[in-house]
Structures are given as C-alpha cells and as structure tokens.
Write a structure and sequence with these properties.
Order of helices and strands: EHEEHEHEHEHHEEEHH
Bound molecules: pyridoxal-5'-phosphate
Largest sheet: 9 strands, mixed
Structural class: alpha/beta
Number of helices: 8
Oligomer: single chain
Radius of gyration: 16 Å
Number of strands: 9
Shape: globular
Strand order of the largest sheet: 3-2-1-4-5-6-7-8-9
Length: 245
C-alpha cells in the first residue's frame, strides 16, 4: 500500500486539517500518516484559537515516522508559524521526500490567522523544495504581490509564484466571479480545470482546500501524473461538498 504523510493542523470538527486529510487518503486507498503542526479550537463555522507545536517537536514527529515508513507523497497544510515552516524546510532538505504538495494556508475563511506574517514571507524560501503549491487567490496575491481580479491576473501571479521554484503552481480560482476555474502552471503552459459553481453557506465549503491538496498528494502517491491527480482531486472535493447539505 502506498503512503502519504500530512503535515498540518488539527481540526476537532474533522472538516479540515489532519482529520480530513486522513479521510481523503483513505478514500484514495492510500495509507495515511500524520504529523501535527498546530492544535486548533474550531467547528465548521468558526476558528476560535490556534496553538502551534514547538518546531523541535514537529521535527521529532516526522523523523520518528520516517524511521519506520517509506513516504510516497507529502501534503503540507497549515504550518502555524515561521518556526514551523523553517523546520519543515530543514526536514525536506535533510531527508529525501518526493511528491510534496503545499497548501499555503494563511487564514480561515472566517478570517482567523493560521500563519504569522513572518511565516507568510518564509513560504517563498521553501518553494524550490515543493512539487505543487496550491494557493487560493488571497494567498496567491500575498505570495506574488499581485492583486487578482480576473484570469489574466491569476496567470501573472502563477508566473510570479512559479519563479520562486516549485515544479507546478495550481491556482484555485473559486473566489473569482463566474464559473470557478483552477489553473495549473508548469512554467510553460496553463492547463485549466473548469468546475460548476455549488452554492451554499461558507461552512459547506469548510476544509475544501485541505481536501484538494490531500487528494492530489494521494494521487501522486498512487503514481498519477499531476493533471490527473488534480482532476481526480477536484472530483473528490465536489463529491464531498455535494454530500453536505
Ligand atoms: N483549520 C485548519 C487546521 C486548516 O488547515 C484550515 C484550512 O486549511 C482551516 C481550519 C480553515 O478552513 P476553512 O477556511 O476552509 O474553513
């Protein structure tokens, strides 16, 4: 059985973070391993508190897992703060990890900060170690310094983020008006994934970014190429959201 490791925050409601990632891995037939970067107090509607673990403890969790398991893919989600991003960067440099998906979580939908300002800047430094980075528009805007209000801005921001060094950039365009379009950029071409807009309250979409990045990691662990992993990931997320009323 292939394995995927999620390095992310814990969500007691199970809708996002580690708990959701493990469900996603299982749905794709991949053995899930999990390392917690931060505890949170939240439900589907609101995040009330976040409590990052010390970076040395984060490192200890990963290194202990690596003593026993071979890792076929990694998903990085909420990191919590600058120190944890630095620790994750060091680990990736030290041990050979492949198929690394980074969901650059910065804030909850409700606006609660899940990463400090220094951490936002440090994301750039780990980009050369990443296979695919999956920012939403707000995160892409912070990473690239480009305001995004239409597809052409999304493309410019993807190019700017690509220049930091990841192998692929997946821009999640769900927050633009019109049909939701995600763009995958490989440094040469853009591939677009067009979805159908699903309506509902914010909580219906809680953790969808977490699910997509975990599903892509699971797909890569299973040997899918990137476009297929994204396509299957989007189908998975859509199925979960449709199942939530
Ligand atoms: N909690 C954790 C641990 C997360 O990783 C995330 C997002 O990635 C959230 C909460 C916020 O999720 P959402 O904004 O989808 O509600």
């Amino acid at each position: 059985m292939k394995t995927a490791l999620t390095i992310a925050g814990a969500d007691p409601s199970g809708g996002a973070g580690i708990q959701s990632d493990l469900k996603t891995f299982e749905s794709f037939g991949v053995r899930g391993l999990s390392v917690i970067t931060a505890l949170t107090a939240q439900n589907f509607k609101i995040v009330k508190a976040a409590f990052p673990v010390p970076p040395a403890f984060l490192t200890k969790q990963v290194m202990t897992i690596l003593e026993e398991f071979r890792i076929d893919a990694v998903k990085i989600g909420m990191t919590g703060n600058f120190d944890n991003i630095k620790a994750i960067g060091k680990i990736i440099k030290k041990v050979r990890l492949k198929n690394i998906v980074f969901d650059t979580v910065m804030r909850s939908t409700g606006g609660y900060p899940l990463l400090d300002k220094k951490g936002m800047k440090a994301i750039k430094d780990v980009m050369p170690l990443i296979t695919v980075v999956t920012p939403n528009l707000a995160e892409a805007s912070i990473l690239s310094g480009i305001e995004i209000s239409e597809i052409k801005d999304m493309k410019r921001a993807a190019e700017a983020i690509y220049s930091f060094g990841p192998r692929y950039v997946l821009m999640k365009g769900g927050h633009l008006k019109g049909s939701p379009i995600d763009l995958l950029y490989d440094g040469k071409e853009f591939h677009s994934f067009t979805g159908k807009r699903i309506r509902g309250k914010a909580e219906r979409f809680h953790g969808t970014g977490c699910m997509l990045s975990a599903a892509i990691a699971a797909g890569l662990a299973n040997g899918m190429e990137i476009k297929e992993a994204v396509k299957k990931g989007k189908e998975y997320v859509e199925g979960v959201v449709r199942g939530r009323k």
